[in-house]
Amino acid sequence: MSSSDGPGAGGAPEGPIRAVLFDLDGTLLDSVPLILDSFLHTFAACGIPHPGDDVLRHGLGIPLRSYFAQWATDPEQMERMIAVYRDYNLSNHDARVSAFPGVVDMVRQVRAGRWATALVTSKNRSASERGLALVGLSGTMDAIVTCDDVRRPKPDREPVDLALARLGVTAESAVFVGDSLHDLESGHAAGVRTAAALWGPFNREELAAGAPDYWLQQPADLEDVLHGR
């Protein structure tokens, strides 16, 4: 039985869903512990004190350049922080990243149906494609939008708008599945329906401010959303 509770924002578009947009880290990939460790490794290597757990978690779902801008004092330091982060993250990626239980089946069921698919992530393209390949999801996205493709990343609407344009679908016919407030805010700003993935790092109380249209306790709950149940 689905754990989605139906519309939560009160103003969700009506009508059939024709496209599903997915966030990557924390939604499809269980990669958040590695991301947080990569932040800590970068801060230690660059002589930056531990900023606190809340500040660390705030970096989830936004591009590295946007996040590290709080500490980088010049372009050279910014590039060093990004390089240190990526070296550590990629060196540990394949051993520490996996798909959340049920996610691969969920995506494949969406693909087997009538729905178009897109990835909308704040990661760069090479890392995004590596993650999809690692868990067996290469070729499952009709469009991929990364931080390399936009000037204004999530929580701005631009990444979602671009994904819709590449799929050739309207906002009213799409739903964005994500695990963070950045995803929900980006989706709402673009006029798509939003579904909060509660298997990610943020709980229902933390995501409530994003007023998702649907709550998904587990990946299989997306089926009820797509079928209007």
Care to describe what's here?
The chain has 229 residues and is α/β, with parallel strands linked by helices. It folds into 2 domains: 19-30 and 98-226, Rossmann fold; 32-96, Putative phosphatase, domain 2 (DNA polymerase, domain 1, Orthogonal Bundle). It contains 10 helices and 8 strands. The protein has helices spanning 32-45, 53-58, 64-68, 75-96, 103-112, 125-134, 158-167, 181-190, 204-207, 222-226, and strands at 19-22, 29-30, 98-99, 116-120, 143-145, 174-178, 193-197, 214-216. The chain is globular.
Keywords, separated by commas or semicolons:
single chain; alpha/beta; Rossmann fold; DNA polymerase, domain 1; six-stranded parallel beta sheet; two-stranded antiparallel sheet; globular
Report a brief summary of the structure.
The chain is α/β, with parallel strands linked by helices and 229 residues long.
Separation of the first and last Cα atoms: 10 Å
Strand order of the largest sheet: 5-4-1-6-7-8
How many domains make up the 3D coordinates? Answer: 2
Overall SS class: alpha/beta
Question: Topology, please?
Answer:
Layout: E1 19-22, E2 29-30, H1 32-45, H2 53-58, H3 64-68, H4 75-96, E3 98-99, H5 103-112, E4 116-120, H6 125-134, E5 143-145, H7 158-167, E6 174-178, H8 181-190, E7 193-197, H9 204-207, E8 214-216, H10 222-226
Helix pairs in contact: 1-4
